[in-house]
Design brief:
Layout (H helix, E strand, L loop, with lengths): L13 H19 L11 E6 L4 H13 L3 E6 H4 L7 H9 L4 E5 L3 H10 L4 E5 L5 H15 L6 E5 L4 H12 L3 E5 L8 H11 L3 E4 L2 H5 L4 E4 L11 H7 L7 H4 L7 E4 L11 H4 L6 H21 L2
Parallel strand pairs: 1-2, 1-3, 3-4, 5-6, 5-8, 6-7, 8-9
Helix pairs in contact: 1-6, 1-13, 2-13, 4-5, 6-7, 6-13, 7-8
Length: about 300
């Protein structure tokens, strides 16, 4: 069973991932059928946001409320982690007042320090290094769409960013085949790639040719080319990523039943076309919804099942 925190998928076992996905599917079925669980009754989740988000805030807040609890939205300006107040001190204070902490921030080290000093569960809602909740919900979505993760070929096309890093961890904990396609110079972290290849061999590939990467893919996944904090690089990235857009002609290279994923928000007309976003292959809005179901299961396990 998943331990105290969720900081990154590589801290989870294969069994942890399988159990969480199973719980998420069960929770989704229960709630879609009108059932409820009140495992967070009387409990409070503190949500610390240094980076804004539609899906992260709404999914965690709704999940907490649906489990009978309460969620507090706290901005970086209100706390000033690491500046106005030491991370270790904030962790100790929050641990005496709330029952769990979700943090969405820039540095992974901030999440690690918070968890090290908190006595309540800490959940990584996103850092520049990893995006575990997103990718766990992605795996749930793929499992839902195809019936199983066994042998599923996922091709991620875009920047070697936090989503790409967590997808590598996801491939190490599930039977998916993962191909990461980036322009030269934008590859994911080499240590993570090398560790992944050592563990799962040719189930993990890094390529630079989008057409080659799309061949036979069951899922084509993309993300924005310039993430929050990279605005000054935007024009250079638009130039460097030309030719990596997910469009209908690229889907023709994939499996006939290919589905398309995007963690959102999307920059339509850049990394993905309107035609694909609004087309029959699109799966990104199921992804977005499944953030709620995955995180409801996660909160239940970490905060409510004791």
């Amino acid at each position: 069973m998943l331990q105290k925190d969720l900081l990154s998928i590589d801290r989870m076992t294969k069994e942890d991932v399988a159990d969480l996905l199973k719980a998420a599917h069960e929770m989704k079925t229960l709630y879609k059928g009108g059932g409820t669980v009140d495992s967070l009754k009387g409990k409070v989740l503190a949500m610390l946001f240094a980076k804004p988000s539609l899906r992260t805030r709404v999914s965690f807040e709704v999940a907490a409320v649906q489990l009978g609890g309460h969620a507090m939205y706290i901005t970086h300006g209100e706390v000033g982690l690491g500046k106005r107040e030491a991370v270790c001190d904030a962790a100790r204070v929050l641990s005496r007042m709330v029952d769990g902490i979700m943090i969405r921030t820039f540095a992974q080290s901030e999440v690690e320090e918070l968890a090290a000093h908190a006595s309540v569960p800490v959940i990584n809602g996103l850092t520049d290094r990893y995006h575990p909740c997103q990718v766990l919900a992605d795996l749930m979505t793929v499992e839902e769409a195809f019936g199983s993760l066994e042998g599923i070929r996922i091709t991620y096309i875009g920047d070697g960013n936090n989503v790409a890093h967590s997808l590598i961890h996801g491939a190490r904990r599930t039977p998916i085949h993962l191909t990461l396609v980036t322009p030269e110079g934008y590859e994911p972290n080499k240590e993570l790639v090398d560790a992944g290849k050592t563990e799962i061999g040719d189930r993990l590939r890094v390529l630079h040719d989008a057409t080659e990467g799309a061949k036979g893919a069951h899922v084509i996944y993309t993300d924005v080319w310039a993430s929050m904090g990279q605005e000054s690089e935007r024009q250079k990235r638009l130039n460097d990523f030309a030719g990596y857009q997910v469009q209908e002609t690229l889907l023709e290279k994939a499996d006939p039943g290919v589905r398309v994923m995007h963690c959102l928000p999307a920059h339509r007309g850049e990394e993905i076309t309107d035609e694909v976003m609004d087309g029959a292959h699109a799966l990104m809005f199921d992804q977005a919804e499944n953030r709620l179901h995955l995180q409801r299961a996660l909160l239940h396990i970490l905060m409510g099942a004791q």
